[in-house]
Q: What sequence folds into this?
């Protein structure tokens, strides 16, 4: 094999692994710039278009991998697309990042000339162009990877030349592979301009403002959001055993949410109910007790949480499914449920407006959407304490939660009737340590893995002193937003 691959054993059992194919001039180590880290399979050396197909086939065969998702960037997107066209049965889906239909002859001639005359200078300028629109990523690239790439130039020069040969000859496969495809572009990309993207009739297209060729690194791209969800899912899974013991606020919110189902609805009943983010099944139990004749489909993206919920609820009318909520809603058939409900989970979603629109789409006529969401002012006291004692740096996950204004706008847009109510829950903890333990044991710390200011014992003690001076105790407020929509 002319390619060696990393992370070949890291994907979870039963999960479709992702293979990342980098662009020309890069290898898979470019993924080190992603935050948070990921478990994608990637090549440790630059792609060789002459051998990557057989090396991928060998990898899948020796590792007994039946199907993969391919995330291809630039030239890697071209090679991934060709691989999918030739081996449709091995590719579950495609994510094509910064894919250009073809490279014009005059541009390739100019690139070849400049690369042959001074390859080092050409590469440095090329790297700079790739990161236009993302200064922070470029600075990180320059300090961590660029010198190694340039030092390996002579060793990799043959691969780079063959890459240019491939780019010059590339044409879109015909027919295009009929698999789920997403295309991602940066609006500021000067290497693969949006105007020159190929036409894929069935593909989902993302165009990210203020992003360039390295758009997959941009925080607004769906790939970054996906990676953040993986971290959040892992935290919830680790907290599955301790969740019920610590999630007292979430349990109280569940009771109040269930109480908002009107007596008329109880009398009429719901035949089909979808619960999004069921966790360990506490709100599921309330729904099952309230509507014993209803068929309930309860989703959660954490296998460990689903396992706990199944142990807790033994009912033929309740089906638990391990699925990511946003993806499920996007693919769910129209007009499927009488009630869609969610307790304290949708604040973690990437696109709340689109989520609320999909829920409206899958509700039956006269259906109901009911949910609770933690608002962005939750734990504002802790945020103030961190700023006062540690200075600017790490923000709380809650600060990125959807605002009441944006939620009300979505309800008014997609529902015949929409209503939002706010309730503030105050809770006092014995100490800051107990508050932080609550966050850890419920899995609600968010996607960040490494804090700029790690909470050492001395820093926690400073926070304790700040809470005592400011509030007389470790007291925090949870902002709870209750949403109701009717179709």
A:
């Amino acid at each position: 094999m002319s390619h060696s691959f990393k992370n070949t054993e890291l994907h979870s059992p039963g999960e479709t692994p992702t293979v990342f194919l980098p662009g020309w001039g890069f290898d898979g180590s470019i993924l080190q710039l992603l935050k948070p880290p990921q478990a994608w399979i990637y090549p440790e050396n630059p792609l060789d278009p002459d051998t990557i197909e057989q090396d991928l086939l060998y990898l899948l065969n020796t590792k007994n991998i039946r199907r993969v998702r391919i995330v291809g960037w630039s030239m890697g997107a071209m090679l991934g697309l060709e691989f999918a066209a030739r081996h449709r049965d091995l590719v579950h889906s495609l994510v094509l990042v910064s894919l250009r239909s073809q490279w014009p002859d005059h541009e390739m001639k100019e690139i070849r000339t400049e690369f042959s005359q001074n390859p080092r200078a050409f590469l440095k300028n090329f790297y700079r162009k790739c990161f236009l629109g993302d200064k922070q990523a470029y600075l990180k690239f320059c300090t961590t990877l660029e010198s190694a790439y340039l030092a390996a130039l002579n060793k990799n020069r043959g691969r780079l030349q063959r890459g240019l040969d491939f780019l010059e000859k590339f044409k879109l496969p015909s027919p295009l592979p009929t698999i789920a495809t997403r295309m991602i572009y940066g609006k500021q990309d000067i290497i693969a301009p949006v105007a020159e993207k190929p036409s894929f009739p069935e593909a989902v297209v993302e165009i990210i403002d203020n992003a360039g060729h390295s758009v997959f690194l941009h925080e607004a791209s769906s790939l970054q959001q996906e990676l953040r969800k993986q971290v959040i899912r892992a935290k919830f899974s680790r907290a599955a055993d301790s969740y019920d013991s610590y999630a007292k606020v979430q349990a109280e919110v569940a009771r109040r949410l269930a109480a908002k189902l009107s007596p008329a609805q109880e009398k009429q009943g719901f035949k089909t109910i979808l619960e999004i983010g069921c966790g360990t099944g506490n709100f599921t139990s309330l729904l099952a007790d309230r509507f014993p004749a209803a068929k309930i489909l309860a989703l959660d993206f954490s296998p460990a949480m689903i396992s706990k919920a199944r142990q807790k609820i033994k009912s033929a009318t309740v089906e638990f499914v391990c699925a990511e909520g946003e993806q499920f809603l996007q693919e769910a058939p129209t007009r499927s449920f009488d009630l869609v409900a969610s307790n304290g989970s949708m604040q973690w979603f990437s696109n709340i407006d689109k989520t609320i629109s999909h829920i409206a789409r899958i509700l039956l006529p006269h259906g109901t959407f009911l949910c609770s969401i933690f608002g962005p002012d939750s734990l504002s006291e802790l945020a103030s304490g961190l700023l006062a004692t540690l200075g600017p740096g790490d923000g709380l996950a809650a600060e990125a939660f959807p605002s009441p204004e944006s939620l009300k706008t979505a309800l008014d847009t997609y529902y015949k009737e929409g209503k939002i109510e706010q309730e503030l829950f105050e809770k006092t903890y014995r100490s800051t340590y107990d508050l932080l333990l609550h966050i850890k044991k419920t899995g609600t710390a968010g996607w960040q893995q490494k804090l700029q200011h790690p909470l050492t014992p001395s820093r926690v003690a400073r926070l304790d002193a700040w809470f005592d001076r400011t509030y007389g105790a470790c007291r925090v407020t949870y902002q709870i937003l209750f949403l109701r929509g009717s179709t």
Remarks:
- The chain has a mean pLDDT of 92.
- The chain has two domains: 5-220, 231-486.
